[in-house]
Amino acid sequence: MSKTTPHQSQESGKPGNTGLKRIVKATGYSIQGLKAAFKHEAAIRQELALLSIAVILAW
After folding, report:
1. 41 labelled as ligand-binding?
2. 39 inside domain
3. Where does this protein hold ATP (predicted)?
């Protein structure tokens, strides 16, 4: 059995998404999370409603 040092990782050796592809995927995941929050969390809907009113008043 080989020992790993704290600086070594136990990755599978496959490179993950890098560069622009990683940013695009992360953005997609963020949008999915916001959609789920809007659908299931009343507090998010309330905060967005208040934000909309505040932006209009600040204009």
Report:
1. yes
2. yes
3. 22, 29, 41
